[in-house]
């Protein structure tokens, strides 16, 4: 009677299992890499969408300003702003700190309304505060009115150039966002529809 040697020997079994483990490792590595690549790509795509949305909103708020614009260091929600940014611009060398951009609109009724756009550097979030100061004639009410709106999150850098707001009717914005390790930067120029001066809220007659 002949012996049946068609079964796997112990060595063959070990080799087969080892090969299977190698292939499993390769597959798992491929899946993990594909998943990471997908998160990176999708995160970047979403970041671009969010950034463009924020820039569109910034344009919407700024384009109708007809009184003044003012750019300061720090978070300023009061009617008396803090220290202004030198030369009214830090777009070429962005300051790594929170900043506030003010805008003023005067309605047909003569009432002046001021809003602020604030970048909180610690929270990496860009906010819009409506009706910061409402002024009629020489009287005004300071303080934060209305509900703040989040314009964008994951904003690692925010810079503005209002240097030519008066003479060329332009305001430039720079945004940098970072999502899932992917950094995206974009600069956009807004053309103002109306004449404005560079001055603190309510101080248009004494602009610097």
Count of alpha and pi helical runs: 1
Count of domains: 1
Radius of gyration (Å): 28 Å
Give the amount of beta strand, in percent: 25-35%
Categorize the overall geometry. Answer: elongated
Enumerate the spans where pLDDT stays under 50 for 5 or more consecutive residues: 138-143
**How far apart are the first and last residues' alpha carbons, in Å?**
110 Å
Overall average residue pLDDT: 81
Category from helices, strands and their pairing: alpha+beta
Major sheet: 7 strands, mixed
Number of strands: 10
Order of helices and strands: HEEEEEEEEEE
Task: Explain what the structure shows.
It is built from 1 helix and 10 strands, in the order αββββββββββ. The chain has one domain (35-206). The strands form 2 sheets. Strands 1, 2, 3, 4, 5, 6 and 10 form a 7-stranded mixed β-sheet that branches. A 3-stranded antiparallel β-sheet has the order 7-8-9. 25% of the residues lie in helices and 34% in strands. By secondary structure, the protein is α+β, with helices and mostly antiparallel strands. This is Prepilin-type N-terminal cleavage/methylation domain-containing protein.
């Amino acid at each position: 009677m002949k012996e049946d040697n068609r079964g796997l020997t112990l060595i063959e079994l070990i080799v087969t299992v080892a090969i299977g483990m190698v292939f499993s490792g390769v597959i798992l590595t491929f899946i993990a890499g594909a998943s990471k690549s997908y998160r990176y790509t999708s995160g970047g795509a979403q970041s671009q969408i969010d950034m463009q949305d924020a820039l569109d909103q910034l344009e919407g708020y700024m384009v109708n300003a007809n009184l003044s614009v003012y750019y300061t260091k720090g978070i300023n929600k009061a009617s008396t702003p803090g220290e202004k940014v030198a030369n009214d611009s830090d777009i070429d060398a962005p300051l790594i700190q929170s900043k506030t951009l003010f805008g003023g609109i005067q309605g047909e009724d003569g009432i002046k309304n001021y809003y602020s756009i604030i970048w909180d550097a610690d929270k990496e979030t860009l906010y819009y505060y409506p009706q910061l100061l409402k002024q009629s004639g020489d009287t005004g009410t300071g303080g934060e009115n209305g509900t703040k709106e989040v314009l964008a999150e994951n904003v690692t850098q925010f810079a503005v150039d209002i240097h030519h707001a008066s003479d060329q009717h332009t305001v430039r914005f720079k945004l940098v966002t970072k999502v899932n390790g992917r950094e995206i930067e974009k600069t956009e120029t807004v053309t103002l529809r109306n004449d404005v001066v560079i001055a603190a809220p309510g101080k248009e007659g004494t602009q610097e």
